Backbone:
């Protein structure tokens, strides 16, 4: 999940704008028929893939690289030997593909991820994405009696659905929580706190031991909005989160959100945040954490893979849910934010939509999924696909987290509905909050004001989460 | 006669054609797109007249970014040119003078290479390099401050809205000054040495020779430098994007970055084009203004 920008990428981006402009004038004939490539439907080919139709796949070449996709393509090729597969990988998804969407000539499968992912709001509003519902109801590759839908982890269908249509398959499964080093905690005799009061008490102890209790990426402060919202959701129930997703008035000023913001703001007030963290990016702060300069950091389950190069061998990173804020929290302590990430889409105007669907079906097979887990150390959306694979300590603790939660994991969708609201507005507000330039109450006001702006902006398509 | 014209045309038409297709037409199209609500993903869009520009007037984030470009525009050319002139004149005529004439400071050749160094690095590398230089704990800037006992000054440079913009500006100056040192040095080479000797004989101080002699004689070059630097100041996109990404809290945002994010992150190409059109007129105005203000009579040698 590291995003790098290169000068060449930027130039390509600029060229993209220009090219997009040029294409706009001559791209009125973008309504290519999608069923041209439909083949015969059979038990072996439930999605009716045309055996001769070539398939083009574009992968985001980020934290997960592109090698895993080649393995998926090999399985697809086995199933459809006559199909020619065109594979490419880029970090500049939006810049590279945006002109092709305009021209009505998008690839068949796109891993729409990374720093320059194409905004889902726009894609969905334009009807540019194929409905993946058919894939959900198709039999899984491993067991013809089981639908693909039933092989997915809970929450995957929700997070990829827009107004009831399943449009984006979030292939990787990410658990979000608070990370610490088991080795450090064992050596010092600390135990992970289950309540916020215990957290504050432990922070005092940690600080007294000469270690910063927390660090955070001040340049991407939204990382700290995750524990705030997770704690708020646990305290006030998922309804609080749904109100936020639906841009309801005063959703960010709900008692639970306020209480959670107050709680995490206290870390800043009491000096429990690593000095200087406000100037670090995610790599810098996570590296400080790996070096043992700080005890806690907020992140998702890609952390282990991202920090592979700098993690000491016996560090034993582990993830835990956010501590409960009160004794009357609506959700148990074990509840955490778990959701899909790494979205895959099948553009509606691709030449081989059926092939695209079948490619996703291949990815969701046990073989495809466990290969992904083995290659990139990340869990997938597929149930049980990590069984029998030796995982690193971080990922092992993620699987424990999932097991312990007993289905109480939840997530918010506002960040995928209205990406900018999280990426820019919440991010900026959190930077202010943790640098103590605003208070928790002001944070709620500030974010609410931004959410209201989005709610009132007619240029932004609204989604309703139920 | 005719054959000659044809001959010239054969050479002129291909580049003009390329220029027309790849430079002029996208510009023209940006004007057209600026009047639409195009999302950048579909072949269809609606014309909405001047709505995008009206929105621009009320967009606090745009004005905030523009303010930063304004500051850059005021300060970047002045500081860079002053530093460039100073270094160049030190290299050319800063040292001792003897029977064979005036010399540069000792090691002038070395300095020339060192100043030019940043120019050899790509913008992306400079950006990443300085991002790490400014890192709160591991960065060289704070390391240096701590080494000389100024621990109190070792702050989180890029994490503080009071400093982030100035940090970026310092990098912009650092990366540009070398080029202008070389440019001014070249211009100074063409000034006859005996003019300096005459001035020195007449008892002019080094400062006087710089202001009264060197600057007027390289004025054309300074003028060009000014326009270039102004254009860099109105842009500033790449460095800002890499070092701070406009943060924290938009405290180092520039218009170019706003445009890029509006287009690619928000999928609002219509509005982004409106920002681009505004920038186009801004750049044009500034360039025209600078050329007018800096116009002076040419000095014949």
Residues:
């Amino acid at each position: 999940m590291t995003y790098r920008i290169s000068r060449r990428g930027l130039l390509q981006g600029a060229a993209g704008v220009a090219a997009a402009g040029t294409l706009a004038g001559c791209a009125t004939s973008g309504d290519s028929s999608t069923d041209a490539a439909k083949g015969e439907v059979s038990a072996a080919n439930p999605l009716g893939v045309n055996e001769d139709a070539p398939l083009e796949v574009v992968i985001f070449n980020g934290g997960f690289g592109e090698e895993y996709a080649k393995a998926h393509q090999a399985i697809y090729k086995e199933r459809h030997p006559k199909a020619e597969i065109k594979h490419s990988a880029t970090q500049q998804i939006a810049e590279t593909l945006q002109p092709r969407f305009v021209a009505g000539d998008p690839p068949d499968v796109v891993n729409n991820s990374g720093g320059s992912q194409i905004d889902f709001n726009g894609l969905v509003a334009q009807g540019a994405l194929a409905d993946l519902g058919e894939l959900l109801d198709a039999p899984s590759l491993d067991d013809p009696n089981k639908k693909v839908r039933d092989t997915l982890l809970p929450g995957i269908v929700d997070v990829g659905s827009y107004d009831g249509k399943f449009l984006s398959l979030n292939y990787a499964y990410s658990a979000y929580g608070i990370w610490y080093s088991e080795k450090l905690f064992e050596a010092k005799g600390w135990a992970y706190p289950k309540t916020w009061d215990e957290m504050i008490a432990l922070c005092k102890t940690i600080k007294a031991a000469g270690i910063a209790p927390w660090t955070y990426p001040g340049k991407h402060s939204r990382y700290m909005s995750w524990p705030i919202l997770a704690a708020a959701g646990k305290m006030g129930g998922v309804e609080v989160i749904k109100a936020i997703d639906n841009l309801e008035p005063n959703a960010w000023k709900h008692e639970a959100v306020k209480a959670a913001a107050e709680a995490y703001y206290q870390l800043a007030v009491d000096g429990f945040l690593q000095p200087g963290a406000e100037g670090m990016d995610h790599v810098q702060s996570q590296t400080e954490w790996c070096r043992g300069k700080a005890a806690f950091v907020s992140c998702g389950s890609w952390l282990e893979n991202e920090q592979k190069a700098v993690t000491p061998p016996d560090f034993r990173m582990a993830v835990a849910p956010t501590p409960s804020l009160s004794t009357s929290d609506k959700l148990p302590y074990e509840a955490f934010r778990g959701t899909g990430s790494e979205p895959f889409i099948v553009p509606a105007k691709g030449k081989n939509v059926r092939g695209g669907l079948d490619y996703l079906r291949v990815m969701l097979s046990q073989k495809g999924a466990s290969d992904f887990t083995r290659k990139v150390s990340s869990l997938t959306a597929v149930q049980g696909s990590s069984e029998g694979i030796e995982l690193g300590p971080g990922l092992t603790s993620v699987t424990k987290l999932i097991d312990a939660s007993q289905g109480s994991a939840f997530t918010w969708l506002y960040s995928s509905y209205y990406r900018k609201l999280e990426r820019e507005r919440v991010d900026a507000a959190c930077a202010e909050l943790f640098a103590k330039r605003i208070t928790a109450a002001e944070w709620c006001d500030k974010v609410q004001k931004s959410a209201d702006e989005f709610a009132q902006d007619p240029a932004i398509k609204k989604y309703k989460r139920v | 006669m005719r054959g000659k014209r044809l001959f010239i045309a054969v050479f002129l038409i291909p580049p003009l054609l390329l220029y027309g297709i790849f430079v002029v037409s996208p510009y023209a199209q940006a004007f057209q797109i600026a009047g639409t609500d195009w999302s950048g993903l579909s072949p269809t869009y609606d014309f909405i007249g001047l709505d995008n520009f009206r929105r621009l007037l009320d967009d606090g984030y745009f004005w905030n970014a523009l303010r930063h470009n304004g500051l850059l525009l005021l300060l970047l050319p002045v500081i860079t040119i002053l530093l460039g002139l100073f270094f160049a004149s030190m290299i050319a005529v800063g040292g001792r003078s003897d029977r064979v004439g005036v010399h540069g400071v000792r090691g002038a050749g070395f300095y020339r290479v060192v100043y030019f160094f940043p120019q050899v690095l790509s913008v992306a590398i400079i950006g990443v390099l300085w991002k790490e230089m400014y890192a709160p704990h591991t960065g060289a800037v704070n390391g240096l401050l701590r080494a000389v006992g100024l621990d109190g000054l070792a702050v989180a440079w890029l994490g503080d809205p009071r400093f982030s913009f100035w940090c970026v500006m310092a990098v912009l100056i650092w990366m540009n000054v070398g080029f202008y040192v070389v440019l001014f040095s070249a211009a100074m080479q063409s000034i006859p040495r005996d003019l300096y000797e005459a001035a020195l004989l007449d008892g002019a101080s080094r400062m006087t020779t710089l202001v009264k002699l060197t600057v007027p004689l390289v004025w054309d070059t300074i003028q060009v430098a000014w326009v270039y630097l102004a254009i860099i100041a109105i842009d500033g996109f790449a460095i800002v994007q890499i070092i701070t990404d406009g943060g924290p809290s938009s405290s180092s945002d520039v218009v170019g970055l706003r445009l890029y994010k509006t287009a690619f992150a928000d999928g609002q190409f219509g509005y982004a084009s409106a920002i681009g059109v505004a920038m186009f007129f801004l750049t044009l105005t500034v360039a025209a203004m600078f050329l007018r203000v800096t116009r002076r009579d040419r000095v014949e040698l």
